[in-house]
Amino acid sequence: xxxxxxxxxxxxxxxxxxxxxxxxxxxxxxxxxxxxxxxxxxxxxxxxxxxxxxxxxxxxxxxxxxxxxxxxxxxxxxxxxxxxxxxxxxxxxx
Length: 94
Fold this sequence. Notes:
single chain, 94 residues, mainly beta, Immunoglobulin-like, six-stranded antiparallel beta sheet, 6 strands, globular
C-alpha cells in the first residue's frame, strides 16, 4: 500500500493573516468563522472581521485576512491513522 502524502500547512502572520495550504473545499464562511476541508480533515478558523482574500482550490491555497483568534481541527484523522476518503463504515470494519 502506497503511503499518502499531504500538503497541509498553516502560516499565521501577526494574527492578522492566515495562509492555509492543502485546502480541498470551503464548507462555510462568514466574518466570525471559516470552515474548510483540508488534506488532513476539517478545520475552523475563528475570529473577527474575517475575509477570504484569495482562494485557489486548484492549488489548494487560501489567504484569510482579519483578526485570527483560533484555528481548530474538527476531527482526528491524522492522529487516529485514518486515511483520507474512507467512510465511517469502512473504518469500523478495518
